[in-house]
Amino acid sequence: MGLREEEIVACRNDDKREEDEELGLALAQAQQQQQQQLQWFAVGVAGSPLLPRKLVVVGYALTSKKTKSFLQPKLEGLARNKGILFVAIDQSKPLSDQGPFDIVLHKLSGKEWRRIIEDYRQTHPEVTVLDPPDAIQHLRNRQFMLQAVADLNLSDSYGKVGVPRQLVIKRDASSIPDAVTKAGLTLPLVAKPLVADGSAKSHELSLAYDQNSLQKLEPPLVLQEFVNHGGVLFKVYIVGEAIKVLRRFSLPDVSKRELSKNAGVYRVPRVSCAAASADDADLDPGIAELPPLPLLERLAKELRRRLGLRLFNLDIIREHGSCNHFYVIDINYFPGYGKMPEYEHIFTDFLLSLVPGRYKKRSC
Ligand SMILES: Nc1ncnc2c1ncn2[C@@H]1O[C@H](COP(=O)(O)OP(=O)(O)OP(=O)(O)O)[C@@H](O)[C@H]1O
Ligand SMILES: O=P(O)(O)O[C@H]1[C@H](OP(=O)(O)O)[C@@H](OP(=O)(O)O)[C@@H](O)[C@@H](O)[C@@H]1OP(=O)(O)O
Ligand SMILES: [Mg+2]
Ligand SMILES: [Mg+2]
Questions:
Q1: Interface predicted TM-score (ipTM) of this complex, two decimals
Q2: For residues 364 and 361, what is the distance between their CA atoms, to the nearest angstrom?
Q3: Which of 136, 221, 270, 346 has the fewest CB atoms below 10 angstroms from its CB?
Q4: pLDDT, mean of residues 189-203
Q5: Which residues bind ATP (predicted)?
Q6: Which residue positions form the known binding site?
């Protein structure tokens, strides 16, 4: 390890005999060493000598909120130890002038960013861009978001996975009651903004209890049948091949009696923001038991392929009283991984898996 600049200065104060020229030389050497460490660092592999290994450079383009929640010190620290360096992408400069990157992580909205990142993907096939902008865009419209799950029609001995019945209303709120009757949807209905672009508005959901109140809703939106699920939701986080499931509190069931008593439209509080883990609560096992892992593994594997994404999560609910009949109600690109215990291990392993063959024998 080379001396750091302050250490060299400290040496100078301690030992007055040191010549200024010598100090300058040492400083230059230390700086050169530091620069080299940016490219290569040595790692000890059990039972083998230290091998030089090239750093994996990950460029990231994230909002400041996301940077704070994702790039926590524990992730950066572990990444550094594993030879991964996170570098912020400067959006005011051309992407090609930055890096070179091995991997680019991004979650930004807007047409211009989509164009930039797609261009970069085309011109830099050697870089893994997580994930393709078109695949991310697909999730930003609730009309199409769950289509892959519906097409999959997954059902095996572990359970069944579907999506709630839904209807898209593009305009004209006065037509909603008729459209709902025609489609045969059952009340209550969850009204979700059609576009899920990450804006606060795109997370403003309401619950409509009666036919008449449906006219109060503001299109464009998706109307989804509300599925009673005992107030517990499963967040299934996917990072490449890895899966982690967390239990969260969700909306309580709506009984037939309540439905007939409480006509109106009610705002739904945001579950992700509350982030109330239901892990330690004393819950009915029929409600709280995690979905069977083999079922989730099959679902995740298929969705990775069908959606063309490696970083996403699924909100899954179990129909109350059913025997493992699940519904996927939401899919989010690059969700809040910071809430996932051990995410730093899962994420760094995933990043390393994208750049195989990084161990190299020293040639001299
Ligand atoms: N069809 C449904 N049946 C029952 N509950 C639902 C349904 N759809 C949504 N919910 C409830 O409303 C919450 C918010 O819905 P959804 O996850 O679709 O919104 P979102 O704004 O995309 O959420 P996120 O913050 O996870 O992106 C869910 O977590 C769940 O508690
Ligand atoms: O910020 P949080 O940690 O709550 O993460 C949420 C994330 O916000 P962020 O991407 O701005 O961080 C949301 O993204 P947008 O839909 O708003 O784009 C969405 O993915 C939520 O589902 C995530 O919550 P989770 O599903 O993990 O509970
Ligand atoms: Mg959700
Ligand atoms: Mg969502």
A1: 0.96
A2: 9
A3: 270
A4: 96
A5: 142, 192, 224-235, 250
A6: 66, 107, 142, 192, 203, 224-235, 250, 315, 330, 332, 336
